[in-house]
Design goal:
It is a single chain. The protein has 264 residues and is of the alpha+beta class. It has 2 domains: 130 residues, Sandwich (Jelly Rolls); 105 residues, Arc Repressor Mutant, subunit A, CATH 1.10.10.60. Helix content is 51%, strand content 17%. The chain contains 10 helices and 9 strands. The strands form 2 sheets. The protein has a 5-stranded antiparallel β-sheet with strand order 1-8-3-6-9. A 4-stranded antiparallel β-sheet has the order 2-7-4-5, with no helix packed on it. Helix 1 crosses helix 3, helix 2 runs antiparallel to helix 3 and helix 5 packs across helix 6. The two termini are 39 Å apart.
Length: 264
């Protein structure tokens, strides 16, 4: 996520590698999308650009807006987990200078979190934004059934600290490892290994809010070592486990002080 300021420019996006969600925080009346009949922006307008879809823009007056970039894989996996459904139910619709209260509210909060450097606030806001997206009802071919996915999730929760093999999960689904890999990716939006890693990071975030030693957390989450967890955790969150714990601890202390003050 980033906050941009610009003026007097001409920009072309050629097959971007991410979905892009943007909100005009200030200005925008002098921004036109040239490949969409030259429509112009305004403060509070939302744009949603789909992954792989190009666009062309002309900017004549100053503006400031927030951009959120997220890959299709991460977006669909987050949607599948938040809504407990097949990742293919997510529908990302292109929007240009639209009124979208859900996306606008989330991006406004994300901008505030970015200015404050509050990773946890941003994390919670992004999760809520993804969970609130609407889905469609496509005719699904292939993939894994909801009850099989739930059995896999339950098994992973119980064995996340262990070494997990593809064949372990394939046996739960009753299919070959190769077939399982393809069907899981269809349903969850990402490969099994990436999904398992995301679940390990999710558990680590929860445990880091407590007092367990980081070395023990790495073992409890199935990482081969503390350094392995640090590398993966930083890749997913932008923070080291220790850095995340410091922020989480500050937030817990702050929340408690608010409760105590409110009770006086």
């Amino acid at each position: 996520m980033t906050i941009w300021e610009n003026r007097d420019d001409h920009i072309c996006y050629d097959a971007p590698r991410y979905h892009t969600f943007s909100l005009y925080l200030a200005g925008g009346n002098g921004t036109r999308r040239l490949d969409a009949a030259g429509v112009s922006g305004r403060p509070g307008a939302v744009c949603v650009m789909q992954e792989g879809c190009g666009s062309e823009w002309e900017i004549t007056t100053p503006f400031r807006f927030v951009h959120l970039y997220i890959s299709d894989e991460r977006l669909r996996a987050g949607f599948a987990q938040a809504r407990d459904c097949d990742a293919r139910f997510l529908e990302v619709r292109e929007e240009t200078f639209a009124v979208n209260a859900h996306v606008a509210g989330a991006l406004t909060t994300l901008a505030d979190a970015a200015r404050d450097g509050d990773h946890l606030w941003a994390e919670t806001t992004l999760s809520g934004m993804v969970a609130g997206f609407t889905g469609n009802q496509p005719l699904l071919r292939g993939g894994l059934s909801p009850h099989v996915l739930r059995r896999i999730d339950d098994w992973l929760e119980a064995h996340l600290e262990d070494t997990v093999h593809l064949d372990d999960l394939a046996r739960i689904a009753g299919i070959s490892g190769y077939h399982f890999h393809r069907m899981f990716r269809l349903s969850r939006g990402m490969a099994p290994h990436a999904w398992i890693t995301a679940q390990r990071v999710k558990r680590a975030r929860a445990l880091l809010r407590g007092r367990m030693q980081i070395a023990r957390i790495s073992a409890a989450c199935g990482f081969s070592s503390q350094s392995h967890m640090t590398r993966v955790f930083r890749n997913h969150t932008g923070l080291t486990p220790a850095g995340y714990r410091a922020i989480a601890t500050d937030r817990i202390v702050e929340d408690k002080s608010h409760v105590e003050y409110g009770g006086e």
